[in-house]
Amino acid sequence: MNNIKNVIFDLGGVLIDWNPEYVYLDVFNGDRQKMKWFFDEICPSDWNLNQDAGYPLAEATKERIALFPEHKDLIEMFYGRWEEMLGEAIEGTVAVLNKLKENYKIVALTNWSHETFPVALERFEFLHWFEGIVVSGEEKTRKPFDDIYLTTLNRFNIKPEESIFIDDNAENIATANRLGINGIHFKSPELLKTQLQDFDITL
């Protein structure tokens, strides 16, 4: 049954640990309720996703400060201390990637600001294993919108039915499935190995 020739990886949450809590939990002295309020009301995930789609970090920060001037210092930290939010490689998944690259075309499709992605490229050697990486900030769009998936398929001459897409976001997987790409909702490296067996891929 295995007609899989290509594996498309998400990066953040699958291969790389990124979490703004690494900065803000300390800033809020361990008060998770206050931190949650900040992420819900001042710098929500939808705001950050807009920068993943190519909006300039400086402009986004300036506009947010104009809305919430009393939180200027906290807002400036979001991108000012972004590198501190970048954790380590998720080694179990890196090991899976290392095995898969022996027999499959591997590419990456990530929601990531084009301004901060070079930091990851410099830090993580395994990012250079991919045939190519589609970075949302460079494309001026992002997952889960169809066009970035189609860009990935076309750029690397990939047929959706011959491909697996691995992502930790269920909404992103739903779009992949609708476009005919076999989706795997990532939960852990250990479970990923089991999920790959559904496609007759044993590591």
- Fraction of residues in helix: 40-55%
Q: What is the count of helical runs?
A: 12
CATH A-level architecture of the largest domain: 3-Layer(aba) Sandwich
Q: List how many beta strands DSSP finds.
A: 7
- Enumerate the spans where pLDDT stays under 50 for 5 or more consecutive residues: none
The first-level CATH class of the largest domain is given as Alpha Beta
Strand % is 5-15%
Rounded to the nearest angstrom, the radius of gyration is: 18 Å
How many individual domains? Answer: 2
For CATH, the homologous superfamily of the largest domain is named as HAD superfamily/HAD-like
Largest sheet: 5 strands, parallel
Mean pLDDT: 97
Record the strand order, biggest sheet. Answer: 5-4-1-6-7
Which outline best applies?
globular
CATH topology descriptor of the largest domain: Rossmann fold
Structural class by secondary-structure content: alpha/beta
In angstroms, what separates the terminal alpha carbons? Answer: 17 Å
What pattern of helices and strands is seen along the backbone? EEHHHHHHEHEHEHHEHEH
Description:
- With 203 residues, the protein is an alpha/beta fold.
- It folds into 2 domains: 6-17 and 88-197, HAD superfamily/HAD-like (Rossmann fold); 19-85.
- Helices cover 48% and strands 14% of the residues.
- The chain has helices at residues 21-27, 32-41, 45-52, 57-67, 72-80, 82-85, 91-100, 117-123, 136-139, 146-155, 170-178, 189-197, and strands at residues 6-9, 16-18, 86-89, 105-110, 133-135, 163-167, 182-185.
- The strands form 2 sheets. The chain has a 5-stranded parallel beta sheet, sandwiched between helices. A two-stranded antiparallel ribbon has the order 2-3.
- β4, α8 and β5 (133-135) form a beta-alpha-beta unit.
- The mean pLDDT is 97.
